[in-house]
C-alpha cells in the first residue's frame, strides 16, 4: 500500500483538456493543471487556444512544476490520438486524464437547431469518449490510471440550459459505464459536478454583478466557488488517496444543490 499521507502524483503524467483560460482568469482546467503539477505530475496542457495553454504553462513553471502546452481540438479523434502520443513520446507514460472541456448553452429544446444540439453534445460528451479511447490503452500499458470527467450540477438541477444539462447528464452516465468497463485494467473513472464557479466561461455569458451575487448567495456556504475548488477535487480523485473510489460523482457546489432555488 502506498503512503497514506502522499497524493502519489509525483512523477506521474497527466493530460488536462481545456487547460487554458481565454480571458486570463482561472478556469477549472487551468486550476487543475497547476494543482496537478504542484503535486508533482508532468502535465500536458491541451487547449484549442495555444496562447491560453501557454499562459497556464507559465503559471505551472512559476509554481516550480513541469507542463507543456499543446493545441488540440478534443472533438477531433486525430487530435485526441495525437495528444496521447505526445505525452507518451515526451514522458513515456500516461496516468491521469482530466476531461475538462465543456461549453455552455442557453435555452430549451425550442431554441436549439439540430446543429447546435449536436455541437454541444459533441464538445461536452463525445470528446470525453474520444480522449478516453486513446488514453486508456496508454494507461493500461503503465499498469492503470485515473480519469476525471467534469460534469455539472446542471445535470442534477436543470434550469434552462437544456442541451448543456443533457450533455452533463451523459457525462455522469459515461463516467459510470467507463468505470465498469476499465476497472479491471486498474483504471478508475470518476466525475466532478461543479456548481456555479466564476470562471472565464461564466464571465463570457455576461453576468452582471447582481447575477453574480445571486449565484454566490445560492450556496449554503454563502461563498463564491472558484476554479481552484474544482481543481482540488480533480486532484483528489486523480490521486492515490482515491484509490478505492470509482464510478462516483463528487458535487463541488458549496451546498447549492441542497436547497431550493
Ligand atoms: N464555470 C462554471 O460555473 C462551471 C460549472 C459547472 C461545470 N463547469 C464545467 O467545467 C469545465 C470547464 O469550465 P470553465 O468554466 O473553466 O470553462 P472555460 O471556458 O473557462 O475553459 C474551458 C477551456 O476549454 C477550451 N476548449 C473549448 N473547446 C475546446 C475543444 N473542443 N478542444 C480543446 N479545448 C477546448 C477553451 O478554449 C477554454 O480555454 C467545463 O466542462 C464546464 O462545463 C463549469
Report on this model:
This protein has 8 helices and 7 strands, in the order βαβαβαβαβαβαααβ. 44% of the residues lie in helices and 15% in strands. It has a single domain (13-195, 226-252), classed as NAD(P)-binding Rossmann-like Domain (Rossmann fold), CATH 3.40.50. A 7-stranded parallel beta sheet has the order 3-2-1-4-5-6-7, with helices on both faces. With 261 residues, the chain is of the alpha/beta class. It has helices at residues 28-38, 50-62, 77-91, 114-141, 162-182, 200-204, 209-217, 227-238; strands at residues 13-17, 42-47, 66-71, 96-99, 145-150, 187-194, 249-252. Nicotinamide-adenine-dinucleotide is lined by residues 17-18, 20-22, 27-29, 47-49, 52, 72-75, 100-103, 123, 150, 152, 194, 196-197, 199-202, 227.
Short recap of the structure:
With 261 residues, this protein is α/β, with parallel strands linked by helices.
Strand order of the largest sheet: 3-2-1-4-5-6-7
Helix content: 40-55%
- Residue runs with pLDDT of under 50 for 5 or more positions: none
Question: What is the N-to-C succession of helices and strands?
Answer: EHEHEHEHEHEHHHE
What does the secondary structure layout of this molecule look like, with pairings?
Elements: E1 13-17, H1 28-38, E2 42-47, H2 50-62, E3 66-71, H3 77-91, E4 96-99, H4 114-141, E5 145-150, H5 162-182, E6 187-194, H6 200-204, H7 209-217, H8 227-238, E7 249-252
Parallel strand pairs: 1-2, 1-4, 2-3, 4-5, 5-6, 6-7
The structure holds nicotinamide-adenine-dinucleotide.
Amino acid at each position: 500500500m502506498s503512503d497514506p499521507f502522499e497524493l502519489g502524483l509525483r512523477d506521474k503524467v497527466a493530460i488536462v483538456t481545456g487547460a487554458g483560460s481565454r480571458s486570463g482568469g482561472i478556469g477549472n482546467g487551468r486550476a487543475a493543471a497547476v494543482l496537478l503539477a504542484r503535486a508533482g505530475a508532468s502535465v500536458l496542457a491541451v487547449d484549442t487556444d495555444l496562447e491560453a495553454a501557454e499562459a497556464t504553462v507559465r503559471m505551472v513553471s512559476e509554481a516550480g512544476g513541469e507542463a507543456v502546452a499543446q493545441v488540440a481540438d478534443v472533438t477531433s479523434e486525430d487530435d485526441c490520438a495525437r495528444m496521447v502520443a505526445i505525452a507518451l513520446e515526451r514522458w513515456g507514460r500516461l496516468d491521469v486524464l482530466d476531461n475538462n472541456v465543456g461549453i455552455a448553452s442557453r435555452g430549451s429544446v425550442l431554441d436549439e437547431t439540430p446543429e447546435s444540439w449536436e455541437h454541444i453534445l459533441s464538445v461536452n460528451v463525445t470528446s470525453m469518449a474520444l480522449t478516453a479511447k486513446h488514453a486508456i490503452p496508454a494507461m493500461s500499458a503503465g499498469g492503470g490510471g485515473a480519469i476525471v470527467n467534469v460534469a455539472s450540477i446542471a445535470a442534477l438541477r436543470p434550469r434552462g440550459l437544456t442541451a448543456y444539462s443533457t450533455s452533463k447528464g451523459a457525462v455522469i452516465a459515461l463516467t459510470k459505464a467507463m468505470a465498469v468497463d476499465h476497472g479491471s485494467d486498474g483504471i478508475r473513472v470518476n466525475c466532478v459536478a461543479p456548481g456555479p464557479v466564476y470562471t472565464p466561461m461564466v464571465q463570457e455569458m455576461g453576468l452582471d454583478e447582481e447575477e453574480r451575487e445571486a449565484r454566490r448567495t445560492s450556496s449554503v456556504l454563502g461563498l463564491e466557488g472558484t476554479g481552484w475548488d474544482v481543481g482540488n477535487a480533480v486532484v483528489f480523485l486523480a490521486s492515490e488517496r482515491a484509490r478505492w473510489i470509482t464510478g462516483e460523482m463528487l458535487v463541488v457546489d458549496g451546498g447549492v444543490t441542497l436547497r431550493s432555488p
